[in-house]
Amino acid sequence: MTTTHPYVPEFKLTDAEREKVLLEIYTRLGQLSPDAVSAGQMEARGGLKDLERNLDAVVDIVRRTVPGHIEPYLAQFLEDICNRCPNQGPSAHCPLRFSGTCSLFRYPETIVGATRDALGEIDAARRLS
Ligand code: SF4
Fold first, then answer.
1. How far is the CA of 54 from the centre of ligand 1 (A)?
2. Is pLDDT of 1 > 90?
């Protein structure tokens, strides 16, 4: 069931840190699939602009999840992101997830890996400041 409650981030990023995480994700996705970062795909439903709107939730999920299999991440994407997404319909069905055109579910390993590495650099920079 879709909820209208906004996501409340556990870990707050500064604007610069947010840009760093997004840049890491876009760089890796661009290497993996240049089409994913094309202007048309960025703006499409389920594209990377949607991912930007869900970045806080992705960051929290990556921070709280022990690295390993992708399934625990996917389960939390469904719970914390899909349940707030307007693209998800009744019975938790999402046509974009079903057709493989939501970037979050099409490239989860790349998005999780890029986010984790960027957060590692962010944490290191915070310790030094
Ligand atoms: S899979 Fe569907 S419901 Fe989930 S984030 Fe993507 S577009 Fe939204």
1. 10
2. no
pLDDT tens digits for 16-73?
Answer: 999 999 999 999 999 998 888 888 888 899 889 999 999 999 999 999 999 999 999 9
Mutate to test the pocket of ligand 1, among 88, 99, 103 (most ligand atoms within 8 A of CB): 88
For 72, counting Cβ atoms within 10 Å of its Cβ (0-12 exposed, 13-18 middle, 19+ buried), the class is: middle
Name the pTM for this structure: 0.93
Give the number of the atom of ligand 1 that is nearest the alpha carbon of residue 85. 8
Look up tokens 């890996």; give the residue: 113
> H-helix or E-strand containing 124?
helix 108-128
Q: Which residues approach ligand 1 with their CB closer than 6 A?
A: 46, 81-82, 85, 87-88, 94, 96-97, 102, 104-105
Query: How do the domains of the chain map onto residue ranges?
Result: 15-85+92-128
Query: Which atom from ligand 1 is nearest to the alpha carbon of 81?
Result: 5
